[in-house]
TrEMBL record:
It catalyses: L-glutamyl-[protein] + S-adenosyl-L-methionine = [protein]-L-glutamate 5-O-methyl ester + S-adenosyl-L-homocysteine. Keywords: Methyltransferase, S-adenosyl-L-methionine, Transferase. Residues 21-292 form the CheR-type methyltransferase domain. The keyword S-adenosyl-L-methionine applies. This is Chemotaxis protein methyltransferase. It comes from the Bacteria. SUPFAM superfamilies: Chemotaxis receptor methyltransferase CheR, N-terminal domain, S-adenosyl-L-methionine-dependent methyltransferases. PANTHER family: CHEMOTAXIS PROTEIN METHYLTRANSFERASE (PTHR24422). Methylation of the membrane-bound methyl-accepting chemotaxis proteins (MCP) to form gamma-glutamyl methyl ester residues in MCP. Its EC number is 2.1.1.80. Transmembrane segments: none annotated.
Length: 292
């Protein structure tokens, strides 16, 4: 899930009788969020987390944060997605960090399609797909490469996220036109259906893109049902708020699912420096799995 730190959003002050987040409840939430989401919440985040979670208290009909902690104790998995959505902000766009897509179009996709033309599979994972802009942008360049080469390769994109709200929008595949600034006019015409009437100002992704993308809920810190191997993994703007041990474990797990020589794409402010010996830097926040 692509996130920003809790310090990046405005909290709603607790006033007018709103419940306060006490020491014991905040410590429980800090431990819970770190264990299940890999995000470390400092003491300075207390008021901000309190403001965001007040919405969950109202949604669940709870009177105080002690009751919310009890909900997490009774059913951690059931509430985890909404908790993660509450304390983080999904930030994404179509064709964000365009140099990654340029590498795919100019080098990687032609190479992979040629190598797999006699029956191989091509798999890309968007880990932290947020509301779907990233996997659908990947689907556009993949579909174009398949059309351009006439390839019949079995090619698919897996898109996962922890946030139920983000996944709901990704599955809907409908976006406001003002959110499509990164999509060229030619691609808008080719890969989107423009809304009319009550859907004016909206665009829906083409059915062909939906065919290429599988959207599933997944917590990166828990067990992974897929076995791979993947040719590329996009995990951009996800690990920036993880601590060093969590990043190391995640990168090791990614290495285990990538093809030899497979690629891992990180966000513009993320780095693998000093965190893994399984990858080599080959471009701007582009890493290749080392071949023994």
């Amino acid at each position: 899930m692509a996130t920003t730190a809790p310090s990046d959003f405005q909290a709603t002050p607790a006033s007018g009788g709103s419940p306060l987040l006490g020491d014991a409840e905040f410590q429980f939430l800090r431990d819970f969020v770190y264990q299940h989401c890999g995000i470390s919440l400092s003491e300075q985040k207390r008021q901000l987390v309190q403001g965001r979670l007040l919405r969950r208290l109202r949604a669940l009909g709870l009177r105080d944060f002690s009751g919310y902690c009890d909900v997490l104790r009774r059913d951690p998995d059931g509430e985890l997605g909404d908790l993660a959505s509450a304390i983080s902000t999904n930030v994404t766009s179509f064709f964000r960090e365009m140099h990654h897509y340029d590498l795919l179009v100019d080098e990687l996709l032609p190479r992979w399609l040629e190598a797999k033309k006699n029956g191989g599979r091509l798999r890309i994972w968007s880990a932290g797909c947020s509301s779907g802009e990233e996997p659908y942008a990947l689907a556009m360049v993949l579909a174009e490469a398949l059309e351009r080469t006439g390839s019949k390769v079995d090619a698919r994109i897996l898109a996962t996220d922890l946030s139920p709200q983000a996944l709901e929008q990704a599955r809907a595949g409908t976006y406001a036109l003002e959110r499509m600034g990164g999509v060229s006019e030619a691609r808008r015409n080719r890969w989107f259906l423009r809304g009319e009437g009550s859907y004016e100002g909206l665009a829906c992704v083409h059915p062909r893109l939906r065919e290429l993308v599988t959207i599933q809920p997944l917590n990166l810190l828990h067990e992974w049902p897929m076995r791979g191997p993947f040719d590329a993994i996009f995990c951009r703007n996800v690990v920036i708020y993880f601590d060093k041990p969590t990043k190391q474990r995640l990168f090791d797990r990614y290495a285990g699912l990538l093809e030899q020589g497979g690629y891992l794409f990180l966000g513009h402010s993320e780095s693998m420096y000093g965190l893994s010996d399984s990858f080599e830097l080959v471009g701007r926040t582009v890493y290749r799995k080392c071949v023994p």
